[in-house]
Amino acid sequence: MPNFNLLILPILGAFYFIEVNHYFKVKYSLHDRQRYIYTSFLFAFYLLVPAFLISAGLKHYFPEFSYWILSKLPIKEKHIGTSLLSFLIGLSSSHILNKIRSKEKIFKKLVEKYGGDAERLIQECFYQKELLAVSLKNEKVYIGFITEFKASLDNTYIALDPVFSGFRDEERKLILTTDYLEAFETFETFYPEKEKQTSQLQDQAGFSKLLIKKEEIRTFSKFDMDLYMAFNESEKQESN
Fold it and tell me: Against a cut of 0.90, is the pTM above it?
C-alpha cells in the first residue's frame, strides 16, 4: 500500500509553483482566490506525471545511476524518488517560466481578461502615461500619473504622482487650486542653489508620491487638460 505521506512533497511543489509563477500568482489575485487550494492539489498531480515518467525512464535506461541516487536519500520509502522529483520540478519550472514571460505582460493580459472597468482604466492610464483624476468623498480632487500598478487587486492604496489638485464646489464643478509642477519650477527659479534639494523637498512634502486609500475614493476618470480649459472657457463666455 502506498505511503500517502509522500504526497506532501508534490503538494508543496505545487504550492511553490503557483505562488512564485507570475501567471498563476497574478491570476488568483485578480480572479478567484478561493480556488487556490484546489488548484494546488490539481497541480500536484500534474507534477507527479512528468516525475513518474522521468523516474521510470531513469530506472529503465540508467538503472545503476537511478539506484545510486536512491541510495543517497535519507528516506528509504517506495516512490520517494518520484515524490522528490515532482517537488524539484515545481521549484525549477516556476522560475524557468518566469524568465520566458515578464510579469508586466502577464498582468496586463489578465487584467484585460479578469479585471473590472476600474482596473482596466487604471492600467490604461499607467501604461499610456495619461492623467487620472481622483475625486475623494471629502470633495478633494487629485490629478496625476499612476506611479505603480502592482500585480494584485488586494492593494488598499492607489499610488499617484500629483500634477494638480483642487476640489468640487456645490455644483460638482472642478476647481483646480494647486499646480505642483509650477510650484517646484518657481522654487528652483528663486532658489537655484537648492535645485539638488528639490527632489528631497518633494519627498518631504509628500508630492512626489501620493498614496490614496481606495475606500476614500468616490470616482476616478481620465483627465484631459485641453478639454477642461475649453469647458471653462465656454462657461466664461456664457456668463459674459
Answer: no
Contacts 24+ apart (CB under 8 A), 86-89: 86/9, 86/10, 86/13, 86/44, 86/47, 86/48, 86/50, 86/51, 87/9, 87/10, 87/12, 87/13, 87/47, 88/13, 89/13, 89/47, 89/50, 89/51
| CATH 2.30.30.100 residue ranges for the chain | 117-239
Residue 125 and residue 144: Cα distance in Å, rounded?
10
Beta bridge partners of 39: none
- What's the CATH fold of domain 117-239? SH3 type barrels. (2.30.30)
pLDDT digits (tens, 9 = 90+) for 170-229: 888 888 888 887 655 554 554 454 444 445 544 444 455 788 888 888 888 899 888 888
Angle between helices 36-61 and 63-72 (to 10 degrees): 130
